[in-house]
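Incident log, structure service

09:12 report received: a user says their structure output differs between two submissions of the same chain.
09:20 pulled the input from the user's history:
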Amino acid sequence: MRGIRIISLVLAVAVMAGWLAFGPSAQAAETCQAYHTVQAGENLFRISLRYGTTMGALQALNNVSNPNLIYAGQRLCVNGTPGGNTPPPSNPAPSNPTQSTYTVQRGDTLSMIARRFGVSVTLLARVNNLANPSLIYVGQVLNIPAGPGQPTNNDVVLPAPPSYVIARTTVNLRSGPGFNFVVEGQLRPGEQAHVTGTSPDRQWWRVTCAVDASSNCWVTSNPAYIQVVALPQAPG
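09:34 re-ran on a clean worker, output below:
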């Protein structure tokens, strides 16, 4: 009888070891095609954007019940499913054989990167599926299109008469004509900037940036915040 009990115990331990070796986690690891090591400051939302997937898909792949409980150094599966079917990426970036990449450095903004490569912020955000252009992080790899695409209303700049703006209160200088664009700097009360153009809806002035007079930023045309002063035009 004692010998039967020992044999039963050995069989139970063997079954348990087999389940641990070939259970859901092991099967998921076998079918996973790509991994990502969590870096300091990253969260599941940013990682999902980087790999063109969703938070829910990453949670399912990695058995993460609480998306806020991930940590630096954790290894996450970002491609593949426990069933072995790899889901197609959502909104994939357009294929372009001449497209290059850029790794975000500390202090970078999307508008700075766009100016460096001669493309618009709108196009750069669209190619990289960035819902919010302000949410880029150090180490993120961005796809850089080979050249500008078809212009949108955000890319169109209309000429403006020679003039400059004076801030009535502190106003933000943005990388594009709209409140959803990255803040590049500020004009404080009494500070000035030369006007270099206007948006098609006339709601935004394109002006010289406070941090770099050779670059252009955008400021609201709301007269409650800024005053426009026309410059005298030479007779001609």
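09:41 both user submissions now match this output. Likely a transient worker issue. Closing.
09:42 reviewer note: Confidence is low (pLDDT under 50) at residues 13-29, 81-98, 147-153. The domain at 163-230 is CATH 2.30.30.40 (SH3 type barrels.).
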